[in-house]
From TrEMBL:
InterPro entries: AlphaKG_dependent_hydroxylases (IPR050411), TauD-like_sf (IPR042098), TauD/TfdA-like (IPR003819). Its cofactor is Fe(2+). It comes from the Bacteria. This is TauD/TfdA family dioxygenase. Keywords: Antibiotic biosynthesis, Dioxygenase, Oxidoreductase. The lineage of its organism: Bacteria, Pseudomonadati, Pseudomonadota, Gammaproteobacteria, Lysobacterales. GO terms for molecular function: dioxygenase activity. Residues 24-292 form the TauD/TfdA-like domain. Pfam families: TauD. It comes from Luteibacter jiangsuensis.
């Protein structure tokens, strides 16, 4: 039977239950339907939040970048991007061939009332349905290419020598990606690694017959590189597969529709949220409260296998 799709995140109150009492299937089914679940009233601390996330995860991806800080003695638990600025809608690690399936956010301290800081969500399935027909056809017909420029140590940390990734796909991460995905390293030097990754602009969602926008095509989070300017920096160029620019009318349609469908989480201290990172874009409103404190985990789902898994393993959905 087809899964019912709802573009509103589910607000799940504890109603006297402990998080451990909620059956796993209830969580998975709710996530498949809503794309995101906000848990409220469960009284968890950060360690309890980590334990819940571990139930549904095969491994955590830790960001090596300086815009996040360790949040506890558990290395996987990190702050969200530091600072009070807003962040545009995006998929976490959307420019990587090893995108984590699940995102988890936990509110250690909510921003004061009226100071902003809401986490933003927009459903890629709902976005696709509201796009102009010509935009839909362009996205279905053409794939997206990310051309990434990163320092060598960052490339090793997030891909080639990442222990979690290696445990999931095998010790030769670059080889596994090259065999199973449209991925290639085009340059390696002492100052940078350049790698390209090509992926569909949209994908089906479950067995419901609907499509979802699933790429970081319209985020303003990426520095746009040229070869000279990208030395030693983190930069990403997003184009169609053949290297041509994505037309402004496609990008403008995506931005306007996404903006019209964006919903905000008004955090309460102790809340936590689970997000399908293959379907739901997320972002952040600016806040004037410097004490707002949200921590996060990025994880590979225990229910679905990676596309880069060993031969014989298949991905069943997302």
């Amino acid at each position: 039977m087809s899964q019912t799709i709802n573009d509103r995140p589910l607000l799940l109150h504890s109603q006297g239950r402990h998080a451990a009492d909620i059956p796993d299937d209830e969580i998975w089914d709710s996530l498949a339907s809503h794309g995101a679940i906000l848990f409220r009233g469960f009284g968890l601390d950060a360690d309890g939040f980590y334990d819940v996330a571990s139930r549904f995860s095969r491994g955590f991806l830790v960001s090596p970048f300086g815009d996040r800080k360790p949040a506890s003695d558990r290395n996987e638990l990190q702050t969200v991007t530091v600072g009070q600025a807003g962040l545009s809608l995006h998929f976490e690690y959307g420019n990587s061939p090893l995108r984590p399936d699940l995102l988890w956010f936990y509110c250690r301290k909510a921003a004061s009332e009226g100071t902003g800081g809401e986490t933003l969500l927009a459903d890629g399935a709902a976005i696709f349905e509201k796009l102009r027909p010509e935009t839909q056809e362009a996205l279905k017909a053409r794939r997206v290419m990310y051309r990434n420029f990163v320092p060598p140590d960052a490339f090793e940390a997030i891909l080639s020598k990442n222990e979690t990734v290696g445990s999931l796909v095998g010790p030769d991460v670059v080889g596994a990606l090259s065999r199973t995905q449209d991925f290639r390293v085009t340059e390696t030097s002492g100052s940078r690694v350049v790698f390209e990754f090509v992926a569909p602009s949209v994908r089906p969602i479950g067995d419901a017959g609907r499509m979802r926008v699933c790429q970081n095509m319209f985020t303003d989070a990426y520095k746009k590189p040229t070869d000279d300017e990208a030395d030693g920096s983190f930069s990403t160029l997003v184009t169609w597969e053949d290297g041509s620019e994505i037309p402004h009318e496609v990008l403008d349609d995506l931005k306007q529709v996404a903006r019209s469908l964006t919903r905000g989480i008004r955090w309460q201290t102790g809340d936590f949220v689970l997000i399908d990172n293959n379907r739901m874009l997320h972002g952040r409103n600016q806040t004037s409260d410097p004490t707002r404190d949200i921590v996060m985990l990025s994880s590979f789902s225990s229910r679905f296998r990676l596309d880069t898994a060993p031969v014989g393993a298949t991905r069943e959905g997302s």
